[in-house]
Amino acid sequence: MASKAKSDTKVPVLKGQEAEDKILEYMKLMNRPFGAVDVAANLKGAVPKATTQKILVALAERGELTQKTYGKTTFFVINQSKLDCLPAEEIATLENELKSVEDENRALAIELRNASTGMPL
């Protein structure tokens, strides 16, 4: 019975453009370096290892990924220059919002500490 349940959960193998799109989507989502074996394993066998390697090299040649070789191992990461960047004004706004939330959080922590020790405000 155990083998029957195992075969029911098989992931469909992707080919061609579907496989390429899935790998590119995964690399964008994770935004960190991976080897071909890691990508294939993390996609749970949806794309075979050999196909994954070929697709990653093709994406690197097109400029979608950056390829870096260390010894015999090659790593791939999404091309950082193609990622969206936040304007400086929006970053400043988010930092100000973060600071106000942290200040509010500190005040609430003090209030909670005082309430739990029974000290009046």
UniProtKB/TrEMBL annotation:
A GO molecular-function descriptor: recombinase activator activity
Predominant localisation class: nucleus
Assigned keywords, A-Z: DNA recombination, Meiosis, Nucleus
InterPro entries: Hop2_WH_dom, WH-like_DNA-bd_sf
Keyword rRNA-binding: no
GO cellular component, one term: DNA recombinase auxiliary factor complex
Any single biological process term in GO: homologous chromosome pairing at meiosis
Compartment(s): Nucleus
Keyword set includes Cell membrane: no
Entry's family note: Belongs to the HOP2 family.
Protein name: Homologous-pairing protein 2 winged helix domain-containing protein
